[in-house]
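README: folding subset

This subset contains proteins for which both the sequence and a predicted structure token string are available. Records are stored as plain text. Below is the entry for Uroporphyrinogen-III synthase (287 residues), shown exactly as it appears on disk.
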Amino acid sequence: MSTLVRPLILTRPEKQLPFWSAAFDRLHIRTVALPLIEIAPTIGPSMQQARTQALEQLDRYQAIMHVSPNAVQFFWDQSGLAQWQQIAMNPAKAKGQPPRLWSPGPGTSQALQNLGFTQAAIDQPAPVHASQFDSEALWTVVHKQITLGSRVLVVRGSSESASDKSNNCNRGSGRDWLAQTLGNHGAEVDFICVYERRPPRWQAHQAALVTLAENHQFIWLFSSSEAVSNLTTHYPAHHWRNHSAIATHPRIAHTLLHAGFGQVVETRPTPEAIAAAAHAMQAPSAP
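--- output ---
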């Protein structure tokens, strides 16, 4: 049966691809890589100063929200981990417990654990029960931690394509929902952007993948609406009605349908759920 499944085009940032490729290999689904977002650290003295200040004042925060594995990678280092552990060992001296580490899903949680944080310090949506791994699902887990005056740091990325760079760090779809919800419950929210999301540097072989996908030989896999936008912006005259795609969030599915994709299936963002969706998708019949 697995041989009948069309290969998946993985569109995540390059450093996330090995995990997903290996996961689908175990499920006997072939993949090809076409990263549609490039990730680079935010550089400059202002960002470095903000990061240093945040790490030196960890005990002022009730929680730190990491929007992705990239947020973990570019915010924390061994000195930051040591600072967090020092607060945990001496809460009286630090005037409180170390901040809880919020994560929207298993990938971000794993990145935190790889750095050295314990699972007990991390809050995330329950992998078995959550219909989605996003801010809304996380809020159902962490809302009782927030009281009037609580302070939360949101560690995120910025988009190179945004027209307004000055306030770019304060925007971000689902994370905006979380910030607004925190504010409605009396919390103060700080933001720090530690990485940039950029459109990919296109190569010739990628155009061939687009053609193969149009001929129903591949299924696109999207975990980001921004990746969809980068693809459709690069091919502004292309018609996507003959393309099939799997979306791991309702917002992404909406973006794909708005762009004109002819076959869109929404599923949970786990390898097993995606594999089941791929098995269920048949190539559309030729007109």
